[in-house]
Fold this sequence. Notes:
Blueprint: H1 2-10, E1 12-14, H2 20-29, E2 34-40, H3 51-56, E3 59-64, H4 73-83, H5 97-122, H6 127-141, E4 145-149, E5 158-163, E6 173-178, E7 193-197, H7 200-215, E8 218-219, H8 221-230
Parallel strand pairs: 2-3, 3-4
Antiparallel strand pairs: 1-7, 2-5, 4-8, 5-6, 6-7
Amino acid sequence: MQAVERMNTADVIDNRRERLAERVRDLLADGATGAQFAVGYLFLDGLIPLREAFARLGDVQILIGNVVNRLTDEQVREEAAARQPAPDDGVRAQEDLAGTVREARARAAAVTALNLRRTLAEMPRTPESRALLLTLASRIADGGLKVRLYTEGRLHAKLALLEYPPSSRHAPRIAVVGSSNLTLGAAAHPTEMNVVVRDAPSTRALADWYGELWDVSQDFHRELFEELGQCWALTGSAAEGE
């Protein structure tokens, strides 16, 4: 009974005492081959502890939503217009349902990209931050990092799915669920709680849930790559501390 209690205690992540990103980093270091994350809004700061894991993992997926909007309507319209493809000749946009869907998706991508631009500008300009952003850009370029934007509703759930080879004691996967946004820096976290899930039926159900949301979401890694390419870390601006 005591062994079970110790295991259950160890699988509870109380962010007052332990950062979620650091626990996920340690779990990934134990032979993981891939990872999938649902994080809500993409802040990026909290991913610094995971930079080395992101650099070596075969496949990383991040599912995000846009839950922060401090932008003006004019900013959103301008960005959305730049992303909206021109309607086909002879088709009136207001009568084209597909065009309406494209417009809504373009607007969602615009809002998220502009908020991400602000997030990147506000990140501390440290060597660690710069290394993370360079790694993210490199992994998008080589196809190892894919990001999708969930536009079917507000994405509030937080999930990390870590994949392992058959020979691993963690195979096929473990999951971490709870209230913490993995990408939010430690200094900004309120009191959060997360739990490591190990049993196969539960992790399979979580993987199915993630897959369903991933399939109906729209690609966003190109937009992320564009924003990274314009940010201070990739344009030659010196980072603080260098």
